[in-house]
Amino acid sequence: MTQRIAVIPGDGIGVEVTSAARTVLDAVAARHGLDLAFQEFDWSCARFAETREMMPEDGIDTLRGFDAILLGAVGWPGVADHVSLWGLLIPIRRAFHQFVNHRPARTFAGVPSPLSGVGPGDIDILVVRENTEGEYSQIGGRFNQGLAEEAAVQEAIFTRQGITRVADYAFTAARARSGRLVSATKSNGIVHTMPFWDEVVRSRAEAFPEVSWRSEHIDALAAKVVLAPSSLDVIVASNLFGDVLSDLTAAATGSIGLAASANLNPSGEHPSMFEPVHGSAPDIAGRGIANPVGALWSVVLMLEQLGHAEAASDLMGAIERSLADAATRTGDVGGNADTAAVTEFVAAAVGG
Ligand code: NAD
Ligand code: IPM
Ligand code: MN
């Protein structure tokens, strides 16, 4: 049966790395006999500039019938980030209950880590980020704008159901990996939400006796990512903590251009969305030098979720071989290839 994939390249290097992902997907599909159909949507800041909307009013309904969504990145100077993100990215995550943001980070052969003494295989961390609630709430506002009394208020929302389901996903992932889990917290701060987070995570731990877990304060945990990354395996974190940690774990492995993500609706009732962790990178857009690996690894996660394990591991192997050689990796990871050269190598490696 044909699997339908919605493709939203977005803005800046989102367009460049999504084009790389499409080229590689065609090669993987041909090699493994996959029946995939693609439909591309021009939803972006460029579209906003013309129509005043990031996606059409029925955008979510349009996506509803797809088996997966592949996204580049959205955001561009001239359109406020809160407009581009609340106009596309966040509504998709929420409408489709993509409550897990699965963000792996690994050190690869050939790619130098900025951390001393860290080599290939030393970092293998999975950040499980809560993806629909927490600090990213719509409740709050700006008050008294322009006055001396000006203020901004943001309410964080944590629900028992929301914490439970992301904790269950993280404990299950930890059980299938090394059996170790760290929960990021800030229960020593003057906040009401984190003691509740801790309590719910602790209650879920009882269902996973094989997993050894502990809570760590987010500040100390961030330091640990730099000082002792090999000691970490699965980290479960709230929306904002997980956002910050996943750029940090990516940077620790060499570049945020490597990092992949899957916004998962684990029940499969709605489409999941796959996207690199990085943004539209206006500072390098248009130069053809963006690292496509974050997008390509996201395709690996998509293939796994669509049930194509063999194709996924074939593609991951091709990505690893490209990273191993400076001639087929980009400048941000110490290579001298451009986006096109990496793409061509990976497409040939999976197609050959
Ligand atoms: P960014 O991730 O776009 O860039 C941060 C730095 O990393 C830049 O120096 C950039 O050149 C570099 N970088 C990022 N991806 C790279 C790659 N693949 N190869 C090589 N270098 C890479 O983050 P930012 O600058 O904070 O945000 C830029 C825009 O992207 C903003 O509008 C932001 O809101 C948006 N954004 C969107 C998403 C998304 O749609 N999922 C994610 C993050 C940021
Ligand atoms: C990410 C991004 C988004 C997030 C922004 C652009 C809203 O940084 O996917 O990591 O914070 O979720
Ligand atoms: Mn982020």
Automatic annotation (TrEMBL):
Query: Which cofactor does the UniProt annotation name?
Result: Mn(2+); Mg(2+)
Q: Which reaction does it catalyse?
A: (R)-malate + NAD(+) = pyruvate + CO2 + NADH
Q: Does the keyword Transport apply?
A: no
Which keywords does UniProt give here?
Lyase, Manganese, Metal-binding, NAD, Oxidoreductase
Q: Domain Isopropylmalate dehydrogenase-like, which positions? A: 4-346
What domain of life is recorded for the organism? Bacteria
A GO term for molecular function? D-malate dehydrogenase (decarboxylating) (NAD+) activity
Q: Give the EC number.
A: 1.1.1.83
Name recorded for this polypeptide: D-malate dehydrogenase (decarboxylating)
- What organism is this sequence from? Actinoalloteichus fjordicus
